[in-house]
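Input/output pair, single chain:
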Amino acid sequence: MTVLKDKYSSEIIAQMMSSDFGFTSVMQVPVIEKIVLNMGVGESINDKKVIRHAVGDMTKISGQKPIVTKARKSVAGFKVREGWPVGCKVTLRGDRMYEFLERLITVTIPRIRDFRGLDAKFDQDFNYNFGIKEQIVFPEIEFDKVDAIRGLNITVVIKSGSAKESYTLLKAFGFPLKALKEKQKVKG
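Output:
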């Protein structure tokens, strides 16, 4: 069992149950369902090797082979045809998700240059999205073998009833989030 998974089951659930959210059952406590990593590679239109490098980097970062995403429509302005590869993505669940989350919180995020904390903005389903501008902040990526600097988007999908619940869960895991803005609406 991973450290964060054990921490969730032994500490965080009890902490959230005793908080002022009013949970009466363990099943009401917010939980991280999955983590989705997405890397858009628009420059792969001109050079097909770029998508292979992106897939290789994503495989090293996640420990799982990504799927290549393809364009759904042809866009003449971007010189993209329908079905051409434009990125790659990985969905992590279970133990692999908790291992990635632990590496992200303890190793990767502290390596981000000029880091001042992550903005606490949640989407309409109370999931947390943030971007990393350089894939080289991950220790699995060898700086000497990188062909280009690419960013990626990380989505933490949380089963929750409000932004405050999601925020409290991520803070309990150790996410370096800034203060939550109270403008977030509750699903209803």
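The CA atoms of residues 18 and 24 lie 10 Å apart. Strands lie at 31-40, 67-70, 85-92, 128-132, 152-159.
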